[in-house]
Amino acid sequence: MASNTTPHHSANLSTKFTKNDEAGSMMIVQPKDLNIVWGKDNRYWNVPQKLGSPAELYQVSWLEVTGIVDETSPNKAYEVGFRLSFNPDAFGWGKYPIYILVKRGKQGKPASTKITMNPNHKGEFEISGKLDKSKEKSGDSSDEGSLYFGLYEVWSGKWKGGLKIHHAFIREL
After folding, report:
1. I need a labelling partner for 2 at 20 to 30 A (CA). Which of 22, 57, 83, 122 fits?
2. What is the average per-residue pLDDT within 31-38?
């Protein structure tokens, strides 16, 4: 008999872009509101439901953390990023790059940013990528206001761990 349970943490389908008054034109996305591959399997991740608590990666060979934000403007550029930190016993970072991909609409062309992280970094830090404003209308204008974004390292097949994701952010530029 098939089961509907999945080892992946699934967030709400999407979140509306809401500017944080304190941060100006920036929106914070909590870890519990992100889609995290293997996020429901406590051998690999701890994804707390408590607001303000970071998701903690124990170990994976396939890093995929994604989100969707609706009601963004195709006429604006956006910076999308993640606030991260490493545990003292972090491993598997630095040799293989990670990528931030961001696109406008499900069928949009992704903008990618390649990042090599230093596992010896102390404290919290941010990594980000940018998406320019649309130069032309896409074929599917109904989805054009949705921003799809993610943090990936799925190509090396190497194990990595000891990463904390404090939040993702979307900043209107």
Report:
1. 57
2. 93
